[in-house]
Design goal:
The chain is an alpha+beta fold and about 210 residues long. Helices cover about 30% and strands about 10% of the residues.
Length: about 210
């Protein structure tokens, strides 16, 4: 859809904090980036951890063409066993790096992909993984890039303050916001969600 028609794709577990138009004017293709904590503690592909949770491109952008052409390489047993590799951020990060490498000698402004800073679209880490990251910070062999983030991980308030960075346009609520208690160990979102019958949203059609 993005390659054929262009536009904006956003995951359903993203919350819009304010109009995002200004954040998408940097180039013809803008993609989001996961928090630095995810790249340092969780992902095997390094930084930037390019995310498919929010993507905006003009029609026919060569980056989207490259993503589509690369997808068959991620359909093996090992990759399909993990959505992160099959169609998610690990795949997209790897494809993004390959795209930059291939385009380096014939780069032009229309082909640029802007990877937004984490604080723009995904300013907070996945709540369900914070305890794991805190345990890593207690290890004597914690890596330097992880140690540099340990103060942020330790001081994270799980969104209780409701305050996000001034530059944030959206916030990602991650898997625990929709798969249930298993991935929402603190009940931070599931206890606050209002559940309703979708039929309540459907208004009967009145015929004159």
């Amino acid at each position: 859809m993005l390659y054929e028609y262009g536009g904006l794709y956003v995951d359903l577990d993203m919350e819009c904090l304010r109009p995002i138009d200004a954040s998408l004017n940097q180039s013809d293709c803008v993609v989001s980036q996961e928090p630095l904590e995810h790249a340092a503690f969780l992902a095997p592909v390094g930084t930037p951890l390019v995310s498919n949770a929010l993507m905006a491109c003009r029609p026919g952008h060569p980056f989207m063409a490259h993503v589509i052409a690369s997808l068959p390489a991620y359909t093996g047993w090992l990759t399909w066993n993990s959505v992160l590799w099959a169609t998610g951020p690990y795949m997209l990060t790897t494809v993004y790096r390959d795209y930059r490498r291939r385009r380096r000698r014939q780069w032009n402004a229309a082909d640029v992909v802007t990877v937004a800073a984490p604080g723009v679209f995904q300013p907070t880490p996945d709540d369900s993984m914070v305890d794991y990251m805190r345990r890593v910070c207690l290890r004597p062999d914690v890596a330097d890039e992880q140690r540099a983030l340990c103060a942020r991980v330790t001081g994270y308030d799980f969104g209780r303050s409701g305050v996000y960075p001034a530059g944030a346009f959206t916030v990602h609520h991650w898997t625990h916001s929709w798969v249930g208690r298993r991935n929402d160990p603190y009940g931070l979102l599931n206890d606050r969600m209002k559940r309703f019958d979708v039929a309540e949203l459907i208004q009967p059609v009145r015929h004159s």
